[in-house]
Amino acid sequence: MTELLLEVKGLKTYFYTDRGIACAVDDVSFSVEAGRTLAIVGESGCGKSVTSLSVMRLIPTPPGRITAGEILFNGTDLLKISEKRMRSIRGNQISMIFQEPMTSLNPVFRVREQISEVLKLHQKLGKDEALDKAVDLLRQVGIPSPESRVHDYPHQMSGGMRQRVMIAMALACDPRLIIADEPTTALDVTIQAQILELMDNLRNNTGAAILLITHDLGVVAETAEHVVVMYAGRVVEEADVKDLFNDPLHPYTRGLMRSIPGTTAETDRNRLEAIPGVVPSLLNLPHGCKFNDRCRHAFDRCFEEEPRLLTPKAGHLVRCWLFDDKEAE
Amino acid sequence: MTHRENADQLVVLKGIRKYYPVKEGGLIGEKSAVKAVDGIDLDIHRGETLGLVGESGCGKSTLGRVILRLEPPTQGEIHFDGEDVLAMSSNQMHGLRRRMQIIFQDPYSSLNPRQTVGGIIGEGLLIHKVGTKSERTERVRHIMEVVGLRPEYINRYPHEFSGGQRQRIGVGRALALQPELIICDEPVSALDVSIQAQVINLLMDLQEEFHLTYLFVSHDLSVVRHISDRVAVMYLGRLVELADKRELYDNPLHPYTQALLEAAPTPNADVVKNRKGLTGDIPSPLSPPPGCHFHPRCPHVMDRCREKVPAFQVHKPRHRVRCFLYSDETE
What we know:
By secondary structure, chain A is α/β, with parallel strands linked by helices. Chain A has helices at residues 48-55, 83-89, 111-123, 127-140, 146-149, 159-171, 189-206, 217-223, 241-246, 251-258, 300-304; strands spanning 4-17, 20-33, 37-41, 64-73, 76-77, 94-97, 177-181, 209-214, 226-231, 234-240, 310-313, 316-318. Chain B starts with 8 loop residues before the first strand and ends in a 10-residue tail after the last strand.
């Protein structure tokens, strides 16, 4: 029996804008087991980043607000604790790696100051101890000659190195959960492979769980064990990684996989199967299933009633009426 | 002044170099140069899609801009349809610009937010004084239809469109003057996967319909594999490999190409990757390593790789590679 580290139940995060209420995250539930990697995958605007920010309680309020749900971390509901207590968890037991290593590091502070800050705050280390630990962390994430690089400013480093610094900061306090929001999107493929490898090793060595937020199905296939697919603020499919890639059920997931060039055996100049249309605006979602206007299997019921999450086979959830009669016992 | 060696060649590049002078260490520092493009020989055949891949900073975008003479090369020759582009007067160049166009990466920053869609797509027609005003409007409406935009949106502004639609506007702008060559500079990198597929399909349909020639610049190996006929791989300003698409992907020769193909994540959960990959970063183009630029990261590095630059030679028919592993040179 593995230990449930993070359990999100019925999370709703809404943004109250002048043009109406945007339901960025609407009734999302998932859980992360200790030492495992869960990927949340989806296109821009599907709510994956808002989900991760909700877990960190970093939703800008106003306009945003978490209106319902529970976020249980080690059994404690993060939505019920005081901001002071949240601050002792954030960056400490739960840490975050952001997408843009260029903009998420402060350009006017040296790397050592940025890593030390976390250590001084959460672990009450002194200046010298913090510096030693910072060098140590840089070595762990594979930065060559960390003793001298620790004194660099972010602009003196390459994109890959900056992302390593971000990871070092996230690791500083031995977190139980690392939220990685598109950690390799801004990087070149050869550097991306290095960072993914590094994250894999760190997870194995530290036993931390990883919540990976990404749009890249290739990255998901290579690093995650369990996958949640989101569309228009909702979970539309959830399964183990092998199950999801070998037998995708939701028309949206299938469409996504087919629209990646080179996934079919014959890659000669044939047409890609694109999903028609665009992701609907969160302010103006279609009635019924949110994917009905782009779905080629849509039938009457899809326009009237939003599907609930069905379980056509064990451990594989899908939000689609096509599977209503195939529900497993 | 014709320099046509083969009627099949639309663009011939010879020894193209593009250096950007920089001063190191402030105002009184020493002068040096970023060798963004460092001696490229390349032909683009009429009607083909030539994929140009490489990582950031390898000079692939610069090369695209040099071909269009948006940036003058430091050295080298460019021939377009047999004519020497660099020898042209600005008048002649003006005429030539109709025949070559570019689609940019970022559909947000590459469209003027204060211009309507009609203005953006029709600007080239206006500059080249094509037809009367009503004929131009008609042409713009037709182009919009061709690229999958509703013609009644002709007076809308770019911010009223989604990313994918904006990229269609960018494609429409490139298409308006019926060019022969279009440089596609990372045209789908900023788009979501499902939208990316729509734009790739559009580009391929248009190529067939209008007999276009593409130079498709991208860092995404799977997109390049899908769309290209031939693929060139670039590393730090130099070409390291060039072959037909299938040959390159099935039988990559250069260690860098092999590493690139290995590093690209595949959406298949059953493939267990041994991600040994490449170590180290891409060196700065300001101070590239001597000899073969790739040698500090190369798993097969030999002594002479550190000293001499391997030639870009034909290894087998239609497959060129710049690597001493395949060199017959004896020392």
